[in-house]
């Protein structure tokens, strides 16, 4: 993951919108991009957050006022610095190649110098838990030097991510007994326990939590704030964000994944697309009576929403819930309703999947209950691929499409057969439905459903489309990838026209 300066400014503004107290903006001494970020901070308005610069303690044997990293922090113009220092004697000797006494001086000098320059300093005790387990007395001595030098917070770091929750609890409790300076917790997720360790540390007295949105970070990542924050607020009754801001969590999580060009994980707790998705018929039947039956919190509390899926596991309850969601008038005990469930299960057996293609599902339901007629009919489709020894492959699609009593016959080129088909369909329909100029494909996925059939295998095509305001997904299945693509494209256009005409 690599972020531009503009990306980082957008993320900082979004974190301030969420209500994060401190935003660590980067290491100004490590690269020009991070320094540019700090110099451009004036371009955004921050009402809640303070931005901190990250750096190491001074180097061994170097006067603190002459250390390049420390001076870069001052040059960045921040009012808060986050300085990390070694607390594990093994690291001091092996990584820094200096003495334990010099490392203590490095911590004291760095924190006191920045404090004397008017900065508040957060001290990150790197590898603290490993250091504590290897040499408790020395690890505590490092914290003592930072506290005496004026650090406003001592952050205990599980840098390797190997500490167990019960160890975290015992160690934080011990530190809490020995220090009056506020404690923080910074854990990595190498054992899959970052959130658990964070919650245990807070229970034992930590009041400052460091983490990242969506858990981004080295190796297995840092603690995911999108899980830690709602657990702290909703489960432990603690205040972490300004009042009302928790409802912005899902929006911020998904926004930052887009900026970072990273997939947003479907099963991410609280903010994932599937976090409040219900599929089994028994589950949905109970949900219709009371959502507490299968939800541990209200999805709206974190800005997410409930989803009920219709699939081969569905019962009548799923269909009734979706019909309600789509504003379709359905009789719960009508034989036609049960017929639709059977039809959907048969289609799923053929390879259709409506969990990720709810626009296609809505069209099926509306057709089944005579509440939708397609806006066009394909009469003929021909696609020509041309490839020569020296020229790249070209694609041309020719279509005949009927709208009412009028037939539109046209052709269009494209970068590939599906693109050519899309262009030809738009060209044919543009005269009657000019609104289709506002829609565009944002994603196109193909999955082979039965690899044993090799190139004759049935494929499923999922298409995501947007009109600039909304997004919707459609599906098609066939042994012919062009036919499957046409099904998904036709559904996508029909759905957009349905939306437009229902306004």
SSE blueprint and pairings:
Layout lengths: L4 H14 L3 E3 L7 H8 L10 E7 L11 H9 L3 E7 L2 H8 L3 H17 L3 E7 L1 H7 L1 H13 L4 E6 L6 H14 L4 E5 L6 H10 L4 E3 L14 H11 L13 H11 L17 E2 L2 H9 L17 E2 L7 H10 L9 H16 L7 H11 L8 E10 L7 E10 L2 E9 L2 H13 L10 E9 L10 E8 L4 E8 L2 H22 L1
Parallel strand pairs: 1-2, 2-3, 3-4, 4-5, 5-6, 6-7, 8-9
Antiparallel strand pairs: 10-11, 11-12, 13-14, 14-15
Describe this structure as you would to a colleague:
- The protein folds into 4 domains: 5-259, TIM Barrel, CATH 3.20.20.70; 277-346, no CATH class; 351-375 and 439-503, Double Stranded RNA Binding Domain; 378-432, 2-Layer Sandwich (Double Stranded RNA Binding Domain).
- The chain has 17 helices and 15 strands.
- The chain has helices spanning 5-18, 32-39, 68-76, 89-96, 100-116, 128-134, 136-148, 165-178, 194-203, 225-235, 249-259, 281-289, 316-325, 335-350, 358-368, 417-429, 481-502; strands spanning 22-24, 50-56, 80-86, 120-126, 153-158, 183-187, 208-210, 277-278, 307-308, 377-386, 394-403, 406-414, 440-448, 459-466, 471-478.
- Strands 1-2-3-4-5-6-7 form a 7-stranded parallel β-sheet.
- Strand 10 and strand 11 (394-403) form a beta hairpin.
- The radius of gyration is 29 Å and the shape is elongated.
- The mean pLDDT is 90.
């Amino acid at each position: 993951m690599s972020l531009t300066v503009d990306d980082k400014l957008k993320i900082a503004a979004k974190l301030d919108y969420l209500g994060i107290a401190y935003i660590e903006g980067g290491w100004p001494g490590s690269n020009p991009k991070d320094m540019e970020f700090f110099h451009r901070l004036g371009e955004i308005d921050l009402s809640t957050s303070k931005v901190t610069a990250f750096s190491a303690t001074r180097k061994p044997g170097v006067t603190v006022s002459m250390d390049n990293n420390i001076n870069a922090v001052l040059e960045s113009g921040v009012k808060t610095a986050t300085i990390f220092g070694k607390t594990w004697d093994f690291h001091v000797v092996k990584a820094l190649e200096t003495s334990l006494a010099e490392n203590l001086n490095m911590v004291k000098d760095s924190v006191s110098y920045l404090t004397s320059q008017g900065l508040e300093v957060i001290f990150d005790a790197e590898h603290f838990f490993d250091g504590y387990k290897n040499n408790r007395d020395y690890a505590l001595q490092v914290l003592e030097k930072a506290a005496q030098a004026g650090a406003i917070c001592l952050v205990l770091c599980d840098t390797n991510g190997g500490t167990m929750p019960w160890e975290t609890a015992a160690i934080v409790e011990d530190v809490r007994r020995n220090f009056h300076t506020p404690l923080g917790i910074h854990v990595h997720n190498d054992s899959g326990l970052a959130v658990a360790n964070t919650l245990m540390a807070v229970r034992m007295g930590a009041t400052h939590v460091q983490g990242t949105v969506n858990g981004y970070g080295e190796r297995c990542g840092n603690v995911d704030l999108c899980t830690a924050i709602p657990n702290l607020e909703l489960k432990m009754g603690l205040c972490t964000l300004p009042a009302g801001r928790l409802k912005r969590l899902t929006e911020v999580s998904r926004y930052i994944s887009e900026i970072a060009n990273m997939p947003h994980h479907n099963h991410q707790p609280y903010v994932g697309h599937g976090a409040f998705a219900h599929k089994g018929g028994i589950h949905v039947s109970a949900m219709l009576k009371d959502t507490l039956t299968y939800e541990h919190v209200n999805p709206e509390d974190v800005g997410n929403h409930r989803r009920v899926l219709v699939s081969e596991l569905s019962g009548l309850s799923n269909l009734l819930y979706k019909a309600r969601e789509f504003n379709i008038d359905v009789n719960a005990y009508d034989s036609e309703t049960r017929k639709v469930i059977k039809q959907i299960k048969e289609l799923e057996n053929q390879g259709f999947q409506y969990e990720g293609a709810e626009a296609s599902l809505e069209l099926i339901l509306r057709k089944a209950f005579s509440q939708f007629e397609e806006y066009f009919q394909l009469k003929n489709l021909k696609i020509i691929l041309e490839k020569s020894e020296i020229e790249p492959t070209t694609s041309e699609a020719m279509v005949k499409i009927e709208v009412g009593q009028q037939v539109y016959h046209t052709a269009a080129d494209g970068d590939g057969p599906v693109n050519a088909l899309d262009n030809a369909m738009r060209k044919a329909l543009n005269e009657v439905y000019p609104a289709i100029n506002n829609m565009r494909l944002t994603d196109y996925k193909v999955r082979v459903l039965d690899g044993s059939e090799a190139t004759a295998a049935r494929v499923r095509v999922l298409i995501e489309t947007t009109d600039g305001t909304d997004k919707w997904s459609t599906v098609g299945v066939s042994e012919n990838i062009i036919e499957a693509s046409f099904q998904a494209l036709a559904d996508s256009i029909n759905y957009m026209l349905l939306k437009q005409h229902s306004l």
